[in-house]
Structures are given as C-alpha cells and as structure tokens.
Amino acid sequence: MKPQFLIAAPTSNSGKTTLTLGLLKALSLRGYKVQPFKCGPDYLDTKHHTLAASQQSINLDAFMMSQEHIHSLYRWNIQNADVAVVEGVMGLFDGAYKMQGSSAEMAILLDLPVILVVNAKAMAYSVAPLLHGFKTFDSRLKIAGVIFNFVTTESHYQFLKEACEDVELESLGYVPANPEISIPSRHLGLSVSSEHNYSEIIEKAALHISKTVQIDRLLDLCTIPTAQTSPANTPNIASLKIAVAQDEAFNFTYPENLQVLKRLGQVTFFSPLHDTILPEADLIYLPGGYPELHLKQLSENISLRDALLAYCQNNGYVLAECGGMMYLGKSIINAEGEEYPMIGFLDITTSMQHAKLSLGYRSVYHNDNIYKGHEFHYSIMTTDNESTTDIQVKTARLKDIDVPVYRKNNVLASYIHFYWGEDCSFLYDLVGIKNLLNL
What we know:
Elements lengths: L1 E7 L7 H14 L4 E6 L4 H10 L4 E3 L6 H12 L4 E5 L15 H8 L3 E6 L7 H10 L6 E9 L2 H13 L4 E6 L8 E2 L2 E2 L7 H13 L4 H7 L1 E2 L15 E6 L4 E3 L2 H9 L1 E6 L12 E4 L1 E2 L5 H6 L1 H12 L3 E5 L1 H6 L2 E3 L5 E3 L6 E4 L6 E9 L2 E9 L2 E5 L7 E4 L9 E4 L2 E4 L2 E2 L6 H5 L4 H4 L2
Parallel strand pairs: 1-4, 1-5, 2-3, 2-4, 5-6, 6-7, 11-13, 11-14, 14-16, 16-25, 17-19
Antiparallel strand pairs: 1-10, 8-9, 12-15, 17-18, 19-22, 20-21, 20-23, 21-26, 24-25
Helix pairs in contact: 1-2, 1-7, 5-6
C-alpha cells in the first residue's frame, strides 16, 4: 500500500503542472521518495518533475505504448518509491480521439485515484454542476478529491467547498494566485532556459501550496494496493558504438529510448554546441530540442559540422528527429530573419519566421510495420529540394498527413519524435541498423 494518484484538470491552463511541481517538492522535503510520471509525450514537464522530485520522471503514453508496456513501466518505477504522482495532460477526458490517450484513460488503466485541479478564478457555486459531470461521466473513474486553483479569498473558497459537499466530492484545499510560482513558457511549452532559477520557483510553489492544501489527507485518500513487477530479461544484444547529441540545443529524449540504445552497445554523449570532435560511432542519434536558440554557436562550430557532414556522406547511420533534422539541413533562419549555415547534408532550409504550430500523434507505416511517435514544432520549411521516402504517415485519426520522412544514404530524418522504448524493431527496420547487426 502506498499513495498513488493522477493529477488532472477539466481544461488545460488550470495550473496542474505548477501544482504537481509544488506537490512533488513538498513531498520530497518531507522525506518521501517520490516517483513522478507524465501522461503523454511531453519532454519539458518531465524535466521539471525530475528537478522537483530528484527522481527521473517517466512518460506514460497510451498512443505510443502498449497497455502491457505502460503497466510494466509504472510498476517497475514505483517499486522503490514511497509515493507515485502522475501528471495528466490537457483536460481529463481529452484524447487523440475522444478519450483515447487521455488522462482519464490512463487513470482507468492503472486504477489510480484522480485529484482534480479546478481553475476557480471566475467561478463560485457554479462549480457544482461541473464537478458533478466529471464525477459521473465515467463510472470506472474515481475522483478522490478536488483542489481549487487561483482562489482569491477564504470566503471565495467557502462557496467552492460547499459545492464539493453538495456533489459528494472531498475538497482538499485551494491555492491562491501567486505570480512568484509561475514558470515561464516557450513556444514548445514550459521553458527550460538557464535564464531562470527553477529550483527556487519550485521551492516557493511547495511552500505556497503547503499552507492551504491538505497534503496529509490527500495521501490518505490515495493510498491503494501496489502491484509488484519484475524487470523483463533484457540482456545486451549488440556491441555497437552509439553517439547521442545531448546539450542545451538537443535534449528531447525518452529514458526508455536511451535504455534500448544501451542494450545495443556503448552509448557516448556529445555536444554539437561545445565539442569539436565527433565520437567514433556506428550510429548517431540527433534528437530534437531548441537548436533555434543556439544558432550562432552551432553554426560557428565548424569542425563538428564538417565531421558530421563527412560521417553522413560516408554512409554512417544517423537518426535525426525534429531539431536534429533541422541541424542536418543547409541552414536555419531565426525569427528575426537571420540565416545560419548548418551541416548541409539535407537540401532543406527551416525557418522560425511566420512560425506555425504542427502538433499531433503520428503513425508511420513501413514494411508492414507501424511505428509510433509525435510531431510538435513551430518551424517551417522554406526550401525543400530533398527527395522523401515512400513511407506513409497518418494521424491518430488515421488520416493521411504530409510529413516528410527523408532517407539519404543511411540517414533517417523527419520532424517526428519516435518512441522505440518498447522494442528495437524501429531501429532495425526504419533506421536500418540491422545491416550492422547481420540480422
């Protein structure tokens, strides 16, 4: 038995991430070992979770992962924890199709109680029918309690508390608005810039919510039986040399993806920003991130640019996702219209001018296999003279979508962030490293 719960909200922008971070830190300061999770493919929330809990946050995604994989990940990661906290995504029932892939689906799948965070800034007793609807919409779901955010006064909270009582949901307190605990955002979500002291902001959030949220009662309500699991037998299966870009510009990686790479051989991390020598490698992984924030430094690191270009031209194996793909292009144009030369292997130019959001889950069809991932970027292509593959890409609603997937020499590049933490077939087939393994 241990406290386990999912933090959700009726809508996005209800403050659930700030509340989650504050709770993670408050529990950690009490001496609990807290295991954080994030519903969906978000890379940035997990970085803040990890900082708040001093424990690597894990993504749980019902579109990109099988139910068996989700159960295994969850159970394995909570076995040494005192408390498990899952942050939901968007509104509680918002999924890729109806509630498929939603926070509600994840709570039902893992049999987790839900703590509902409600933005009560412009609401009083009218919250009662809203709570009634969320409580009764799906009988498989258990809402253990409600926390009201952006509450103005104690008297305001009394209206909200009475609404809870009338719909037979327990109110676990409230959080007054506080600009000092607001985490700045960038165009892809919460900022991870070194300009801000996130540790200080999160500690302030922990102190702030501890004054008005009934944390002990929350833990009592959400203490449930814990199913144990054993790790799968995953011995190393190859001895490849694998180089992974990891620095301020390239850091959108899933821990499970990296674990699979480690099963394939020795993983070495390098920095396209700071390193001048490319590690010896059979496979190079260029993940997404924020290259557009470091264009001058990336462009001026000519020795590494030249080394990567030579590696690609000499048939080295490369997987480049989103920002990694942009880096392999001829140039990137920033929001002010300034153009910076990049690797020059792909005959494409990407731009942050006239930025347009491209967002959504993607299914990639190749050789009778389906590989899952997601697209999330604001950059656009201004020049594309590169030939694409015949790989078919569909949305979560199985609609064809024009997302270019490039195959050139042994380089696979696209805007799609792939998840291959469940098995190696993506790397074998689509990236093509089976040729390195004699498979």
